[in-house]
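Exam revision sheet. Question 4 asks you to relate a sequence to its structure. Input first:
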Amino acid sequence: MLRTFLSLCVLLGFCNGCAPAEECKTGMVDTFDDPAKWVFNGADSPWVSDVSGTVKSRVHVTEGESATRLVFDENRGVGKAQIFLKYPDASGNLSCGTHLLVDIHTDQTLFLRLDFHDRNFHYRMGKFVVVPEGMNRDVRLPLSLYSRETLESFNQMSFMLTGHEPDSTVVFDNLRLVKDVAEAGREFERKGRAALSGIGNLARGSIASASSQEGADKGPGKGIDGIADSRWASVYADEQWYEVRLPEPLEFNQIVFDWESAYGRQYSVLIANNNEDWEEVAVVTDGRGGVETVTFSSVTADRVRIELHRRGTQYGYSFHELQLRHRPDAEPGISRQGGVSAFVEPVTNFRPRSAHVQSGEGPPEFNNVRTNRDRVPVFGLFEAMFDLNATHDNPYDPADIDVVAEFTSPEGKAHKVPAFFMWPFERTVVKGQEQLRAADLPEWHIRFTPTQPGRWEFTIRATDRTGATETEVLSFLAIPSKRDGFIRINNDNPYYFATDTSDVFFPVGLNMCWYVDTTGEGNLQTVAYDRWLESLAANGGNFIRIWMFSVSFNPEWIETGLGQYDERQPHLWRLDYIMRRCEELGIRVQFCLLNHGQLSLSTNSEWNANPYNAAIGGPIDHPVEFLTDETARTMFRRRLRYLMARYSYSPNVFAWEWFNEIENTSGLDTEALLPWVAEMTDVIREWDPNHHLITTSAKGSERVYGPDSIDFTQPHMYEVGNWPPAIFAKIHRLRNEYRKPVFVGELGIEHNPPRIDPAGRHLHTGNWASLMSGAAGGAMTWWWDSYVAPRDLWHVYRGISSFAEDEPLHLSKGPGRKFAVEHPEARLEAMALDLSDRTLLWIRRKDATATAFSGKHSELPDFSTVTGATLSPDRLDFTPSRVEWWNTAGGTISGKTVHDEGNDQISIPGFRTDIAAKFFATKREQ
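Answer key, C-alpha cells:
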C-alpha cells in the first residue's frame, strides 16, 4: 500500500537564524504529542535549503492516521505554515486525487497556496481556498482539479497557510490524509466557491418558499441547495419575503447570505416555532451584498423568514445560498467577507486586507524584484514585479504608500509611471463556465511600453511615512518590431485616426461593455468575452467599448468603500485578461470611465450603491456634487491614477471616455463640468505616459465636445428607421462644428434589443453610411450580448472592414457627399467619399431600410435584383480608368471594369439592396 507522508513546517517571519525546533519552544509551537515522529530531512528537500534557519518542526503521518494538534501562535508579525505532502510510489511519481482535510478553529481568514516541487524546480500552482471567518469545519482541497500529467511531473508538493494577524492563535485539529475524492472534494469541486457551499448549513434539506421568483430556474429551493451557481431570485420589487421551514426545531444564531449582485439593502430576520407568531431577531439597514453574516442571540426555531424591504440595485433580490449556523462564541452583529458582488462570482472568497497591511521599522524595502523579460519588442509590454516591506495602511492610496518608476529612453527622455498593487488569479473553464481562484499573495507591478529600440533604464522609488527607498538602476533592451503602436489623430487630416506607424486606423466594432449573463448560460464572464472577441476578429472587427461598470470592471463600489480596491481585484483581473485577448486579436478598446447610472437618481440609477453616496458613508449627498466636492475629486483622482498605472501601458487602449451620456446623470451637465474635465484630464496626462486619446459621449449635450482636451466626438443615436440620411447629417454637422473626428458610439433601432431587425440590416447600413459620410469609424451597436451574439450577426462587420482596409482615408478631400442614381423604377441613392486618387462609392435602395426587414431572418426575397442602373462620370471628380465592384455583405470584389472615356454613363452591375465600388483615377498594375 502506498505510504504518504505529511510534514508540517512552521515559518516565523521575523525569527531569522533560530535554532532547531526542539530548542525554540517559547510560546511559538505546540507540536504533536509524539516528538519521535519529528523528521528533519533537510538534505532531501530543496525547499528546506531555501529557508535555512526558519524550520521549526516537521512531522510525518501515515495515510489515514490522525495527528492530534498543532497550535501556531505568532507574536512578531504575519506568520506562515507550510504543509508538505510527499508521494513516492514505485516510479517516484505523485499519486493523484489526494485531499488534505483540516479542522479549522479561528476567526481569522487564512490563505492556502499550492506549490509543486522537484529537486531543481519549484512551480506555484496557486491559491486554493480562503477559510471563511468563524468556520469550524473540514477544509477540502481537491487536488484532482489538476491533471495527472501535471502532478506526476513533480515529486513533492506543499500547502502554504498565511494571512492570520499578529497576536492570534490558529489551531489545527485532526490533520489527516484521505483519498476519497467523492467524499473529500465534493463541495469544492462544484464551482470553487469555498465560503458557502452548504458546509454546516442547518437549512439544507428544508423546505423553502418565497413571495415571488424570477423565472422557472430561480425558485426558492435554489437558495439552500448548496450549489454555487444556482440561486433564488425575486421579481423587481422592494417588499418581498423568503421563508425556510426546518424539519424540526434547531438551535442557531447566525444567518449567512451569499448574495448575487441583486442584494438586499434593508431586511429583517424573523423566526417562529410551531406556527406561532413571528419574532424579529435581527434587522439590517445597510446591506452591501457579497457574503453577509448576521449574528444574533441563540434561538431555537423551526421556521425562518427574511422580510426584504429595500433593494440594493434596480433588480430584485437574489442569493446563491442562505445558511443557518450555530456559532456559540460569535458576537451579535453583521460581518462581511469578500463582498465581490458580480452577477455570478465563482471566485474563491478571500479577506485580503490583513495580508498586505504592513508596519515596518524603517524605510520601504524592495524584495524579489523581477521582470517579465529582458528583451522587449518596441510597443510590447515590459513588466516589473516586486514585493515591498513598507509602513502603510492602504496600498491604493499614494498619500500612504507612493511607488513610482522612472524610465529613461535611449535618447535620455524620462517617463514617469506609477506602480500598482494587485492580486493574481487563475482561471479555469469547467463545462463552459469560468472559475477563478486567487493564485498567490498580492504584489506590486509596473507596466511600461517602450516606443523606440535601444537600452532603456529605470529605477523604482517607494515612499511611505517612514522615508523613501530607491532601487538600483535597472535596464532592458527594446528591440525593433512590426507592431503599429498607439492610436493618434492623423497629422494630415484631423478627422481621422492613425497609429504611430500607419496613416489610418478605421474602427469597426461594437460595444462589449460588461459580462452580465443575459443568456441564462451562467458564469461565463471572460468565457463570454472569448467568444465575442474571437467572433468579432474573425469578421474583421478591430474595436470594442467597455464600461467601468459596477457589476463588471469598476475598481470600487459599495463593498469596497472609496479608495480601497481589494474586493474588486477579481474584476480587474478579468479586465487584464480581456486586454490580453484584445492584444492577441488586434482589437482596440475604449474605456468608458463613468457610466451615467452611477451618478443618476433616475436613469438606470445605481446611486444607492455608489460609495460616493453619503447615505452609505461617502462624501456627497447628491450626484451633482461629484464635480465640486474636494473629497470626491481627490478620491476620483486616486482611482484614475490606479487605472492609468494598470492599463495605460497598452497600445490597444484606444481612448479614455469620461462619461456615457452625460445628460442622463443627475445634473452633472452644468457649468462645473468643464473645469472638472480639465482637472481630471491633467491627472490622466500626468500618469499616462503614452498620451492616449480622450473623449466623451452624449445623445444631446454636445457642448461637452468643445474642450481641446476632448480629442474626438462620439454621439449616440437611437430609434431611427432610415439610418443613412440620419448618420450623414449627424457626421457632417459635428465635423463642421468641432473640427474633430466623429463616429457613432451607440446605435440602436430601438431602445431595447432589436426585434424588428433580426437580420441586422441597421448595423449594415449604419457602418456603410458612416464610412461614406466621412466618419472616423463605423457605427457601433449597443446590443452585443442580447442581439449580435445570439443571432450570430458578426458577419455584418466583414464587408465594411474588408472594404475600408488599407484605404488612405486621411487623403479625403472633405466629408462624404450623396446624390441620386439613375434608374427608371428603383429609388437609388449614392454616397461618395472622394480621396486623392479614387472615389469610394456606396449605392443603396432607399426603400431597403431596417424597418422594411421587420420579422425577416435574412434579406427579403421580394427585393428583386436591380438592373440597368447607371451613373454619370460627371458625378466624380475625375474620369475613372478602372472600377472595382464590391459585395457589401461579404466584403469581396464581385467584378472589375475598365471605363471607356467615350461613354457618357457607367453601368452598375445588378444588385438587390446595395453595392459598393472603388473608382480609380489612374491605371494600376493588375
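Marking note for examiners. Residues 630-647 form the longest helix (18 residues).
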